[in-house]
Amino acid sequence: MMNFAHSTNDAIQLDRVVFIGRTLSEYVKLFDLDLSQWQKSQILDCPAGAASFVAEAQEMGIDALAGDILFNLDEGTLRAKGQADLVHMLERLAEVTHNYNWDCYQNIAQLNEYRQTALERFLADYPDGRQAGRYVQTTLPKLPFSDRSFDLVLSGHFLFLYGDCFDYAFHWQTILELYRVCSQEVRIYPIQGKDAQPYPFLNNLINDLNHAEISVEIVNVPWEFLKGSNQILRLWRA
Fold this sequence. Notes:
Layout: H1 24-30, E1 42-45, H2 53-59, E2 63-68, H3 75-93, H4 108-132, E3 135-137, E4 150-156, H5 168-180, E5 182-189, H6 202-211, E6 215-220, E7 231-236
Parallel strand pairs: 1-2, 1-4, 2-3, 4-5
Antiparallel strand pairs: 5-7, 6-7
């Protein structure tokens, strides 16, 4: 995995892109989703990490697919990595709890419960889902899908959150790729980095999207765990 050094004392000090995930109920809030609008749609979650969104969406009859760089690995390897990364993340988060709004979770123990639930539900679906094509290895900024393959594309807790780890070209190329494979919308959360500060090149990005004639806006969402992280970047096709 990639290792990164951080100089911001106020940021959570992660030494890698962690393989953790969130539940469908969390996705509904942080992406401001009305799943009844997407019942007959195809949804891509990328990069998905250990999220249980696809597994839970399938149970609701929603056609969803997850993409991640680690989806060439077997269930046992992903379990070990998911557990190790969760421990690492919780240890580091405990050092900067002031950066977080604990109305979302009562405490770190409850946060751990949510992350464990997502990991276990994901792992329960992964072996069969991988065979069925629900879990596909993807290496951004390229995706192995045709143009406009998905109605809705969700991308959470990666791009801007790790904005200090990837250059602007990577962000730009990845967002164009997410847009390429969508037929209706792309939603990206959050627009802050690990230090709770907005992505420093967000205005440049929006200007470049406007010049590319891609519709874009910042939208408030009913979720704010990392302080200030109550907005998504939304791209859409007319």
